[in-house]
Task: inverse folding
C-alpha cells in the first residue's frame, strides 16, 4: 500500500535474503517505488492483475511455474533472520501437507461475532508447542505449492484474506498449524493504522462472521504426526 512507505522497505529487507524470489503486489501505486527495484523482486500491479486489495499478497503463487515453498508476508512486519528456515522445518516435520504460520486464531462455539468469539494467538506472543488452529494470519504463513494451490482471483471476497485462505485450506483437508516461537520473534512495525483492515472489522464484522460460520461447518482436519525434518533448498515468496 502507498501508505506503508515507512515500513515496507524494512519488511522487504528482512525477508529478501531468505527467498529466491519475492512477488510484490503494489496496490494502487502510480509508480513503482525505489524499494521495489531489486533483482529478486517480481512486481505485480493492481492495474494489471486486478483490484485484489489485501488478497494480493497471495497473488504471486498463481504466477509460479515451478514447485516451491511460498511465504506470504506483509509490508508492516519485520521477519527474523531464521524465519524461512524455521517455517520450512515445521513444514518438513508435518510431511509438507500443512500450512504453518505465526499469527493464529481459534473460533469459539457458539459463534455470534467474529471479533468477540475468536481467540487469537498474536504474532508477538510466545508459543511453546505446535498447535492446530482454525485461522492463520496471512502476514506470516508458509506452504508447499504441491500441497495447496491458491488463486485469489477465484475468491468472492476481498480484504478477508485470512478467512478466505482458511476456507480454501480446510475445503481441501489441509491443516493449519501455529508454530512454536519465543516472544516477539516476528515484530509488527506498525499497528492500528488509520487504514487498517482490522479497525474496520471491529466496527462491523457481519461479513467476517458469516465466513467464520461457513468455516465451522467444515471439519477441522487432524494434524499429521510430527517427524524429523529434512533440509530443502528451494524457496520462493
Result:
Amino acid at each position: 500500500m502507498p501508505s506503508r512507505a515507512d515500513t515496507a522497505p524494512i519488511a522487504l529487507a528482512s525477508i529478501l535474503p531468505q527467498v529466491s524470489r519475492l512477488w510484490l503486489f503494489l496496490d494502487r501505486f502510480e509508480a513503482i517505488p525505489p524499494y521495489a527495484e531489486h533483482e529478486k523482486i517480481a512486481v505485480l500491479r493492481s492495474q494489471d492483475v486486478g483490484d485484489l486489495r489485501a488478497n494480493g499478497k497471495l497473488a504471486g503463487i498463481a504466477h509460479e511455474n515451478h514447485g516451491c515453498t511460498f511465504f506470504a508476508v506483509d509490508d508492516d512486519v519485520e521477519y527474523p533472520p531464521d524465519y524461512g528456515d524455521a517455517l520450512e522445518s515445521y513444514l518438513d516435520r508435518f510431511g509438507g501437507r500443512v500450512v504453518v504460520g505465526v499469527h493464529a486464531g481459534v473460533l469459539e462455539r457458539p459463534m455470534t461475532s467474529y471479533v468477540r468469539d475468536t481467540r487469537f494467538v498474536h504474532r508477538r506472543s510466545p508459543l511453546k508447542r505446535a498447535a492446530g488452529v482454525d485461522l492463520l494470519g496471512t502476514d506470516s504463513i508458509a506452504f508447499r505449492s504441491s500441497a495447496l494451490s491458491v488463486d485469489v482471483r477465484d475468491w468472492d471476497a476481498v480484504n478477508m484474506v485470512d478467512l478466505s485462505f482458511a476456507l480454501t485450506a480446510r475445503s481441501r483437508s489441509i491443516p493449519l498449524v501455529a508454530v512454536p516461537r519465543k516472544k516477539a520473534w516476528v515484530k509488527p512495525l506498525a499497528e492500528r493504522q488509520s487504514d487498517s483492515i482490522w479497525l474496520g472489522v471491529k466496527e462491523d464484522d457481519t461479513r467476517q462472521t458469516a465466513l467464520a460460520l461457513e468455516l465451522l461447518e467444515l471439519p477441522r482436519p487432524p494434524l499429521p504426526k510430527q517427524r524429523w525434518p529434512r533440509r530443502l533448498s528451494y524457496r520462493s515468496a
The radius of gyration is 17 Å. The mean pLDDT is 94. The CA atoms of residues 143 and 222 lie 17 Å apart. Helices lie at 8-15, 46-49, 83-93, 161-171, 197-203, 206-216.
